[in-house]
């Protein structure tokens, strides 16, 4: 345990009773190791949040086995807790509703606000814990009477985009032991400690559900109907398999090869017309229908609990892996308006727009519409049968 003793010197915090969400991945493994090395009273919980249908893969079985191995190596108590009903009601039902409405939701954001720092936090407090810890790449600090959510040191792994919905109570009770580390440092630390998760591949896919054949998975829960693929000018060029399977800016999976009368160039999704069950496609990744100068979002959440002085110039992200974009923001109640300094590509309804002031995440909202024709106008006129 010499390596763990060395870790203790790097985390000069007062001792607490903590519950760590051990997911079976390397990040939560090292988060637990660092907190235990610092002398905290740490117990692990593995969250069961999804019960797969017959024939669906069940990554949770292997993840739980990996979490048990880590808990044994660190000599930490571990228990599995069932949050399946909460997940279905508070995350998955809303996930499906967004797809039914023709939008593209981000379940990871709901997972954090509703489950990891909602149901899980409530459960941890009922066990007498002072706080919960996770393997998220983020930081926090207390300044001017408020908790602030800060970007992680590792800009490539920073997860504040997914955490922007946390409130002051949730952030006060959150611990992010990896916020000052890079991913390479986390893996190296896991290897030094002899943890079996040191080289485990990062999880991908839908939050708590994992990798799926997306179309097959959605088809189990949503009634989808094929319909026309049409150009902005109204020409029918193909057939889609269901609007829920496509997102703005998508290139792969359209099934459009050589279309008579059009050059041999890639096709992209540039809009949806739910009223006509039409998918609008065009050639060119920078097609005008993909570009937005302004968006309107709802469900605006300020991490500080109150808005800053508005309007203001800041930076925003409309997707997770995206450089910050400068923009001017303003708000009216829970409605947010964002005006980009330069046109932004593929701003997608259902996704989050997250706001930043330097390293501080201010909050965010869910994108409803933009001034791009394929979103604001919808169906092209005079579609050819």
TrEMBL record:
Name listed for the protein in its UniProt record: tRNA-specific 2-thiouridylase MnmA
InterPro entries with a match to the protein in the record: MnmA-like, MnmA-like_C, MnmA-like_central, MnmA-like_central_sf, Rhodanese-like_dom, Rossmann-like_a/b/a_fold
Residue span(s) of domain Rhodanese: 2-59
NCBIfam families: PRK00143.1, trmU
EC id: 2.8.1.13
Species assigned in the record: Thiohalospira halophila DSM 15071
Localization of this protein: Cytoplasm
GO MF, one annotated term: ATP binding
Chief subcellular location: cytoplasm
Residues involved in ATP binding: 21-28, 47, 135
Sites marked Interaction with tRNA: 136, 351
The entry's keywords: ATP-binding, Cytoplasm, Disulfide bond, Nucleotide-binding, RNA-binding, Transferase, tRNA processing, tRNA-binding
Active-site residues annotated for this sequence: 111 (nucleophile), 207 (cysteine persulfide intermediate)
Catalytic reaction(s) noted: S-sulfanyl-L-cysteinyl-[protein] + uridine(34) in tRNA + AH2 + ATP = 2-thiouridine(34) in tRNA + L-cysteinyl-[protein] + A + AMP + diphosphate + H(+)
Interaction with target base in tRNA: region residues: 106-108
Task performed by this protein: Catalyzes the 2-thiolation of uridine at the wobble position (U34) of tRNA, leading to the formation of s(2)U34.
Entry-linked HAMAP family: tRNA_thiouridyl_MnmA
Interaction with tRNA: region residues: 157-159, 319-320
GO cellular component, one term: cytoplasm
Alphabetized Pfam families for the sequence: tRNA_Me_trans (PF03054), tRNA_Me_trans_C (PF20258), tRNA_Me_trans_M (PF20259)
BP GO terms, sorted: tRNA wobble position uridine thiolation
UniProt family annotation: Belongs to the MnmA/TRMU family.
């Amino acid at each position: 345990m010499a390596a763990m003793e060395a870790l203790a010197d790097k985390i000069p915090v007062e001792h607490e009773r903590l519950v760590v969400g051990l997911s079976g991945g390397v990040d939560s493994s090292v988060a637990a190791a660092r907190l235990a090395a610092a002398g905290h009273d740490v117990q692990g919980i593995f969250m069961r949040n999804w019960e797969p249908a017959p024939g669906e893969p069940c990554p949770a079985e292997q993840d739980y086995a990996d979490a048990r191995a880590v808990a044994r190596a660190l000599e930490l108590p571990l228990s599995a807790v069932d949050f399946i009903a909460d997940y279905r009601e508070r995350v998955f039902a809303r996930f499906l509703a967004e797809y039914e409405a023709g939008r593209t939701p981000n379940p990871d954001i709901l997972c954090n606000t509703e489950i990891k720092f909602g149901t899980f936090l409530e459960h941890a407090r009922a066990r007498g814990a002072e706080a919960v810890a996770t393997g998220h790449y983020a930081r926090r600090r207390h300044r001017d009477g408020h908790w602030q959510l800060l970007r992680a040191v590792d800009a490539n792994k920073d997860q504040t985009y997914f955490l922007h919905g946390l409130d002051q109570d949730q952030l006060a009770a959150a611990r992010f032991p990896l916020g000052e580390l890079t991913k390479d440092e986390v893996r190296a630390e896991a290897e030094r400690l002899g943890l079996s998760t040191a080289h485990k591949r990062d999880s991908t896919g839908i939050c708590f559900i994992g990798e799926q054949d997306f179309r097959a998975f959605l088809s189990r829960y949503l009634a989808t109907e094929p319909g026309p693929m049409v150009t902005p000018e109204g020409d029918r060029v193909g057939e889609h398999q269901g609007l829920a399977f496509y997102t703005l800016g998508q290139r792969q999976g359209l099934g459009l090869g050589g279309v008579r009368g059009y050059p041999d160039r890639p096709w992209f999704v540039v809009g949806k017309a739910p009223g006509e069950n039409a998918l609008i496609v065009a050639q060119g990744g920078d097609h005008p229908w993909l570009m937005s100068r302004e968006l309107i979002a709802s469900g605006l959440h300020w991490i500080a609990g109150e808005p800053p002085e508005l309007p203001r110039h800041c930076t925003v992200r409309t997707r997770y892996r995206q450089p910050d974009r400068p923009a001017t923001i303003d708000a009216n109640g829970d409605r947010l308006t964002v005006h980009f300094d330069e046109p932004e590509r593929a701003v997608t309804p259902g996704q989050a727009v997250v706001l930043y002031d330097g390293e501080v995440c201010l909050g965010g909202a869910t994108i409803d519409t933009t001034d791009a024709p394929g979103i604001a106008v919808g169906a092209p006129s005079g579609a050819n049968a």
